[in-house]
């Protein structure tokens, strides 16, 4: 019963990505700021420190209100060990392309895990 309650509480998307990706998703309506001024997104640019990305990734994967975490693949590459280590079902982790960086299936941690399960 408590797991069903937890799943019902997971009603947000979170995003870690470049400004164009975040802007597009915010315009689509995914933005959320809670009563403690915590946002469900992090804009990453060339000046963003890896520790900030790592911290946001940790926070978003531990939050109980997030169902899906989207992360630009080129940003995920900056914290690849943490992304590859992440195994939980919720929030689901999806690597997405950006305007400047096309999607590379060989880097996707979820796809690698599926291929390993299939024996590819």
UniProtKB/TrEMBL annotation:
Chain intervals for the UniProt region annotation (Disordered): 100-120
- Coiled coil, from the record: none
Quaternary organization: V-ATPase is a heteromultimeric enzyme composed of a peripheral catalytic V1 complex (components A to H) attached to an integral membrane V0 proton pore complex (components: a, c, c', c'', d, e, f and VOA1).
Q: Which UniProt keywords apply?
A: Hydrogen ion transport, Ion transport, Membrane, Transport, Vacuole
Report the source organism: Dioszegia hungarica
The record's Gene Ontology cellular component field reads:
fungal-type vacuole membrane; proton-transporting V-type ATPase, V1 domain
Pfam families from the xrefs? Answer: ATP-synt_F (PF01990)
InterPro entries hit by this protein? ATPase_V1-cplx_f_g_su, ATPase_V1-cplx_fsu_euk, ATPase_V1_fsu_sf
Query: In its UniProt entry, what is this protein called?
Result: V-type proton ATPase subunit F
Describe its function: Subunit of the V1 complex of vacuolar(H+)-ATPase (V-ATPase), a multisubunit enzyme composed of a peripheral complex (V1) that hydrolyzes ATP and a membrane integral complex (V0) that translocates protons. V-ATPase is responsible for acidifying and maintaining the pH of intracellular compartments.
Query: What's the domain of life for this entry?
Result: Eukaryota
Localization, per the record, is: Vacuole membrane
Spell out the molecular function terms from Gene Ontology: proton-transporting ATPase activity, rotational mechanism
Q: Does the keyword Transport apply?
A: yes
Membrane topology annotation: Peripheral membrane protein
Q: Which family does the record assign?
A: Belongs to the V-ATPase F subunit family.
């Amino acid at each position: 019963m408590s797991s069903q309650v937890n799943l019902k509480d997971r009603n947000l998307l979170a995003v870690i990505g470049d400004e164009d990706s975040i802007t597009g998703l915010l315009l689509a309506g995914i933005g959320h700021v809670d009563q403690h001024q915590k946002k469900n997104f992090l804009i990453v640019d060339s000046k963003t420190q890896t520790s900030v990305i790592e911290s946001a990734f940790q926070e978003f994967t531990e939050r109980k209100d997030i169902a899906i975490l989207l992360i630009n693949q080129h940003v995920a590459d900056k914290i690849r060990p943490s992304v590859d280590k992440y195994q939980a079902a919720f929030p689901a982790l999806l690597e997405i392309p950006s305007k400047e960086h096309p999607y590379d299936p060989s880097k996707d941690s979820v796809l690698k895990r599926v291929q390993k399960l299939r024996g590819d």
